[in-house]
Amino acid sequence: MLEALIDSYIAVWNETDGAARYALVTKIWEPDARYIDPMTSGQGHDGIDAMIGAAQGQFPGMTFSRRGTLDAFGDRVRFSWDLGPAGAAPVAGGTDFAVVTDGRFANVTGFLDFTPG
Amino acid sequence: MLEALIDSYIAVWNETDGAARYALVTKIWEPDARYIDPMTSGQGHDGIDAMIGAAQGQFPGMTFSRRGTLDAFGDRVRFSWDLGPAGAAPVAGGTDFAVVTDGRFANVTGFLDFTPG
Known about the structure:
Two copies of one chain form a homodimer. Chain A is of the alpha+beta class. Chain A is built from three helices and six strands, in the order ααββαββββ. The interface between A and B is medium-sized, with 13 and 13 residues.
């Protein structure tokens, strides 16, 4: 179930249809959830949806994919991701640390593992 | 300053003198701070001090040391550590993710990167 949740997390960052993206945001994030990374942040369903939409505008043609396996205990999980053009080497990657409550994300902090030189 | 705080964080896990350890705990952790990793957890100065003391009893003769560099933004930081006998290869290692407020740890989540096979 956690695997599916993380897959949905990646999927929402790739979902460019506004209505579908918002529906997925509300499904997998707590209403008062918070996200922060070195470049952006968002809070609540509206804030997180808008943040993801803005990120998609910054990286057109790029898609997120999971890298490696999940590492989870209790309500905590860490997982890594790559960002790049489909079928090509990633241009950036990061690791996210999340608190999951009742099957939804309550809090996520993203760190960057590598970025375009 | 963050470098010094992380160095003190490692130092407190290695401080086996009870009074010195408690003094350092109160210096670098918020009064209501929380720590959790896959093996243990603690809250508040007393809870975190007792948790570290118990961990030291589980790993006699082992010391913690920092591995790699800090990665920080805003009030978030991640850093990695090794655990092992002084001067020998580490037997375990992990990465901690912290929220730092007013120069003290408010919340730390520890993940294990490798453990004894």
